[in-house]
């Protein structure tokens, strides 16, 4: 029994990867969803009509993830953010954001394992997801490190504003767009600052990749559009008329998502933002993620 569990886990992960490759290939040959019709009919948000937004009230459970909080704020997940099944998380993130079914199983299943719960029958509250160095980690773009702010549901507005103001791209109508190099640059700054100011700072390679994965949704699912990101990140609300920018029939697969994530992570160079004193005295840390400067 002791040996079965890790074997079952590896088998599940390999199965999900194979499924993901299949979905990626299938996406190449089937037509994309029509613009304006990305959110499936019958699901909240179909035709751009999101259920009423109600800000969380005292006692509601919220977490460090703006996308999940927004779903609770619209009642797509329970409004109190409590007693959510992992299966429900799977189906709702799929319909709301058009991630591929492989991703929508993989991440909630990872979260269930992280919380030592059973994917098929247990429930969780949103705040449970903030287990430090589970998925939540130091040096993020929207929250102060847990050392300074134990409640990771609290939006750190100056960080969000700085992120939004860092956009250098423009769409065809001249509206601001966040780009891959923008995201690498602001992530470098955030990590360097957090490392310098937080006496308990930690960020291993795994969590650095998790960080770039979370933040890469800003470029993929949200298409880097600053106008939408303002609403989503500052109010944790889905704008009227909003739909996922992923139009592939089977959604954003892990394989395709990884193309963006790896470019963002590769472009991160903390040294560019490290305080001079820290650079002079700090030995290379085994869990640091200083990378050679490379533009994505
Ligand atoms: C599948 C279930 C999901 C879980 C369990 C989850 C969990 C988390 C957690 C724990 C964080 C905090 C990470 C940190 O410390 O920076 C986070 C951040 C984030 N998540 Fe999610 N999330 C999920 C789905 C999504 C989806 C579907 C999207 C986008 C549509 C998304 C977008 C983000 C963004 C933009 C951040 C902020 C990244 C940063 O501050 O650097 N998440 N998520």
From TrEMBL:
Organism listed in the record: Lyophyllum shimeji
Key word Oxidoreductase present: yes
Keyword list, A-Z: Heme, Iron, Metal-binding, Oxidoreductase, Peroxidase
Protein name (record): Peroxidase, family 2
Alphabetized GO MF terms: metal ion binding; peroxidase activity
Family: Belongs to the chloroperoxidase family.
Required co-factors: heme b
Superkingdom in the source lineage: Eukaryota
Annotated Heme haloperoxidase family profile domain residues: 49-259
One Pfam family matching this protein: Peroxidase_2
Xref: InterPro entries: Chloroperoxidase (IPR000028), Chloroperoxidase-like_sf (IPR036851)
PROSITE patterns (UniProt xref): HEME_HALOPEROXIDASE
